[in-house]
Specification:
The complex is a heterodimer of chains A (about 475) and B (about 260).
Chain A: H1 4-14, H2 17-25, H3 28-31, H4 36-48, H5 55-71, H6 78-103, H7 111-127, H8 132-136, H9 138-157, H10 161-176, H11 182-207, H12 211-230, E1 236-237, H13 242-249, H14 254-281, H15 289-310, H16 328-345, H17 347-357, H18 359-364, H19 369-395, E2 397-398, H20 407-418, H21 429-448, H22 453-482
Antiparallel strand pairs in A: 1-2
Helix pairs in contact in A: 5-21, 6-16, 6-19, 6-20, 6-21, 7-11, 7-12, 7-19, 9-10, 9-11, 10-11, 11-12, 11-19, 13-19, 14-15, 16-17, 17-19, 20-21, 20-22, 21-22
Chain B: E1 6-15, E2 18-28, E3 33-38, H1 44-52, E4 59-64, E5 67-69, H2 74-80, E6 82-85, H3 97-101, E7 108-109, E8 112-113, H4 115-128, H5 146-158, E9 164-168, H6 176-191, E10 195-199, H7 203-209, E11 212-217, E12 220-226, H8 232-241, E13 243-244, E14 247-248
Parallel strand pairs in B: 3-10, 3-11, 6-9, 9-10
Antiparallel strand pairs in B: 1-2, 1-4, 4-5, 7-8, 11-12, 13-14
The chains are: A mainly alpha (about 475), B alpha/beta (about 260).
Chain lengths: ~475, ~260
């Protein structure tokens, strides 16, 4: 009676084995594999219960593509489709970072202008051949270094060591005055974004200000910083650097495109099938084998078809040849894979969902809520800096409006249209890609129909409104279906 | 009678000017259900939160398995094997049962979680508690009924090889059949050799599952009695007036002034 552990064992073994077996078989769905029709019915019943995921956005995307294809001859031309991918990539990447912040139920209004600061630093480092002090003036340069240092210190206070390391790397690059090198410039942009995120994260999670206010203030402040860096009415061109220009405007070679296709399609199939069979072996919850094969097959078909189309010459005139998958595709796919892996497979990702679902429960379970809430802002700003590299490359220059205006709102819109919830706890990185595609198709399609900016804005707004309505209605259904 | 697994003496807690807990003594024994009862505001939840490390106690000693311990955070309590099932459940709606049960203590490396092992363990724990109402351990918690949520929360607390489980009003919001399931579960925890503390307002529940009853009255522990030694009426008097016959607070005329 003295040792509760010893006492526990006999009780467990006394339990007749058949009783525990019955209990296990009571998890009917878990052990017996579902037939295909059962799985389909299960999916339909989940849809009816309001768990829509990104289905509405996918349907909307298909509807928009069909609509624009019928209204414009150019829309489905290969050149336009490739162009569309590059147009949407910047805001899609920023939206991927926003998803992390939305997942914990916060908002980052400063992600757009933060990306603009990163872009401005990148452009200035390139234009001044690494002499940032000359470009900014010594006072501003010292303040810039101090801001990076502040990011490093705050990240250290939060025990986000990656944030500290990357911010310090930014100081080293900026202070050393290395000559212009496109890779160094991109790295410096990333470091700047990370340092900015550390500052935002500290203010929100340690000081405890509402993220809306903090990021609204920083949104304005970073806009001023960009203006200071670039100068009133100034533009810094970056298209003279082949690498910086190619990021959003270049294409993989035909061979490279097919290698990418094989790696992506093969990797997806290997992962899903491998996981499926290992779960089957261990007697865990699985989808029917037929559905898993269907998914892998469908992805393979889409991947191969897209690669085949993009490797055809799509040049608008006969003098040049444009073939291959645009570089933005592997960039976005790579970020999508990394983001999905982090959110679904790591402890960090699990804790992000937990904090978004029930902050108090996460705290009681021993999750470091302060650190998680701060870290999502670091992720968001860092990813936004990557987005800045892509959109700056697309435009070929950085001006004081970079990352301003609608950049942020489109990114948040993309995440929400894709199915991420503004209330936290629900969303995936792929939502940002789907939502980003919807917005890119709307902007591109209406542009081809030579609609004025007014119409583009109104339609984009209505699409967002529709997405939010679907989210709210499905949420209500889910709430009423719960009990 | 066995030595208590959790032995609290002279615990005090104040929130600013409000003295919430006065010199609380409480014993929890392995294999027994100790009911903690008291009126609203008597300090039941505060006491549980002090034991769980959510609030720090101002003074007092806590002995766990005969050794003095200091519980400063929920982590400390969890490491000792003290688990709390809160009134407000503390489950994340958007996660499924497995993810909730292992929240904060995921298996596998932090860069690659071992989902298969967690799923198996969750299923075995639910099975060992004869939980039969849950269709799949991959059901999101948002799709579960109140009773099922409570069941998951309790099962979560036993997953950790825990030695003491504190249940804060586990049946408060439940229907008749669901209350039945949860009370059975509480009994089963004690049979597995855990020390169980049950906070409840419902006298029928208390008399059904508890071995001993500890009564809090205005932040003081007025009685710790065996369930079989007292009647419903006596416990209600202890809760409302702090004494019943010879049990509880001393009568005013006997009080030392």
């Amino acid at each position: 009676m003295n040792d509760p552990v010893n006492q526990k064992e006999p009780t467990m073994t006394q339990t007749p084995t058949e009783s525990s077996n019955t209990a296990i078989t009571d998890f009917g769905i878990d052990t017996t594999t579902m037939s295909t029709s059962e799985a389909v019915r299960d999916y339909v019943s989940r849809l009816r219960a309001g768990q829509l995921g990104s289905l509405p956005a996918l349907l909307g995307l298909v509807a928009l593509v069909i609509m624009f294809a019928s209204l414009s001859d150019v829309f489905l031309s290969l050149n336009n489709l490739a162009n569309l991918l590059a147009q949407g990539a910047g805001q899609t990447i920023i939206a991927m970072g926003i998803v992390f912040v939305l997942l914990v139920g916060e908002i980052d209004l400063s992600a757009g202008t933060a990306s603009g600061v990163a872009g401005a630093v990148l452009a200035m480092h390139f234009a001044e051949n690494g002499n940032l002090m000359g470009g900014m003036g010594s006072t501003v340069f010292v303040l810039f270094l101090a801001a990076l240092g502040l990011g490093a210190v705050l990240a250290a206070l939060l025990r986000i060591w990656a944030g500290t390391a990357i911010s310090v790397l930014g100081i080293v690059i900026a202070a050393s005055g290395m000559a212009a090198n496109p890779w160094i410039e991109m790295l410096l942009a990333l470091c700047t974004g990370t340092a900015i995120g550390c500052i935002t994260g500290y203010l929100v999670s340690r000081i405890g200000m509402p993220s809306f206010v903090v990021t609204l203030a920083l949104f304005l402040a970073w806009q001023g910083v960009i203006l200071q860096f670039i100068g009133e009415g100034g533009v810094i061109g970056i298209s003279s650097s082949p690498v910086l220009n190619q990021v959003a405007n270049g294409n993989l070679s035909v061979l490279g495109s097919w290698v990418l296709c094989v790696v992506a399609v093969g990797g997806f199939a290997a992962l899903t099938l491998g996981r499926h069979y290992s779960r089957l072996r261990r007697g865990l919850v699985t989808q029917p084998t037929s559905i898993v094969f269907f998914k892998a097959g469908a992805m393979a078909a889409i991947g191969i078809a897209a690669t085949a189309l993009l490797t055809i010459n799509r040049a608008p005139n006969d003098n040049i040849v444009i073939t291959g998958v645009p570089y933005v595709v592997p960039i976005v796919l790579g970020l999508l894979v990394i983001g999905t892996y982090v959110l679904n497979r790591t402890q960090y990702g699990r804790h992000i969902y937990a904090v978004g679902g029930n902050r108090e429960a996460a705290r009681r379970a021993g999750v470091n809520v302060t650190k998680i809430r701060a870290s999502v802002f670091v992720v968001c700003s860092s990813v936004a800096a990557l987005g800045a590299i892509v959109y700056s490359s697309k435009v070929g220059s950085v001006d004081p409006q970079a990352g301003g205006l609608n950049t942020l709102l489109f990114a948040v819109g993309a995440a929400v249209i894709g199915g991420a919830s503004l209330f936290g706890g629900r969303g995936r990185v792929s939502d940002a890609v789907i939502g980003g595609s919807v917005l890119a198709v709307v902007a591109n399609g209406l542009g081809l129909l030579s609609q004025p900016a007014a119409v583009v804005s109104i339609v984009t707004g209505l699409v967002l409104l529709l997405a939010a309505t679907v989210d709210a209605l499905s949420r209500r259904r889910a709430a009423s279906a719960a009990r | 009678m066995s030595e208590p697994i959790l032995h609290i003496t002279g615990l005090n807690k104040t929130f600013g000017p409000v003295h919430v807990l006065h010199d609380i003594d409480l014993d929890v024994r392995a294999g027994e259900v100790t009911a903690l009862v008291g009126d609203n505001g008597a300090g039941k939840s505060t006491l549980v939160k002090c034991i769980a490390g959510i609030h720090g106690a101002d003074s007092g000693t806590v002995e766990f398995q005969g050794k003095p311990v200091h519980i400063r955070s929920p982590k400390d309590a969890a490491e000792l094997g003290i688990e709390v099932v809160y009134q407000d459940l503390a489950l994340a709606d958007n996660l499924d049962i497995v993810q909730n049960m292992f929240l904060g203590r995921e298996r596998g490396s932090s860069w690659l979680l071992d989902e298969a092992s967690m799923e198996k363990a969750a299923r075995e724990t639910l099975a060992s508690l004869s939980v039969r109402t849950v269709k799949s351990v991959r059901t999101p918690v948002s799709a579960l009924s109140g009773g099922q949520r409570q069941t998951v929360a309790i099962a979560k607390s036993v997953l950790w090889d825990s030695k003491v489980v504190l249940l804060d009003e586990p049946t408060a919001a439940l229907g008749v059949a669901q209350t039945r399931q949860v009370l059975d579960l509480v009994r089963r925890l004690a049979e597995q050799g855990l020390g169980v503390v049950l906070i409840s307002h419902n006298m029928a529940d208390v008399f059904e599952v508890a071995d001993r009853i500890a009564v809090l009255y205005l932040g003081r522990m007025v009685a710790e009695v065996h369930t079989k030694d007292v009647t419903h009426g006596q416990v209600v008097e202890l809760i409302t007036a702090g004494r019943s016959g010879d049990i509880g607070l001393a009568r005013p005329e006997h009080a030392v002034l």
